[in-house]
């Protein structure tokens, strides 16, 4: 109920949503977007924005399909192995065989910060590859990646550089999940469970 939202009717309000993106300082593009024609038009509008962006979920799927070239220098991509495989046109098994090579290849292809999710999240900006050792198997639940997208977008909106927002966001997200696992166990962990822990960690920083 705290979310401030704009109600959009796909049939008539596309222009309103584009105006909202134009006025935004940061865009999180992908979660819940879909891949139909309306979604593709919206994706093209969003990815053309020369402002900080986080692209996840269907945004990554549409990026993999896109034939257009985009300036993604202010962008963070957050694929899991399946999405990474689509971005590189290979199999998820190949991604998992050499995750370091995979994150570097995606970074080189799209020229942006890439956060490859998984056991030992990797973050690459073309200069360095960072490893987030926090996190646990309880995070493999619906919506967990969407929370990460929101955390990173929030950090971008506070002025952090993309590489710093990606690293800090991933650490906050994973450490919050580890704290929940310690308190209540990994089984049954929900995406919403990590929100109070993220708040607590942010207030300690």
Total domain units: 1
Helicity level: 40-55%
CATH homologous superfamily (4th level) name? Ribokinase
Class of secondary structure makeup:
alpha/beta
Spatial arrangement of strands, main beta sheet: 1-2-3-4-5-6
Mean pLDDT across all amino acids: 94
In percent, how much strand structure appears in the residues? 5-15%
Number of helices in the DSSP assignment: 9
CATH architecture: 3-Layer(aba) Sandwich
CATH secondary-structure class: Alpha Beta
Distance between the termini: 27 Å
What are the segments in which pLDDT stays under 50 over at least 5 consecutive residues? Answer: none
Sheet with the most strands, sense and barrel status:
6 strands, mixed
SS elements, strand count: 6
Order of helices and strands: HEHEHEHHHEEEHHH
Which radius of gyration do the C-alpha atoms yield? 17 Å
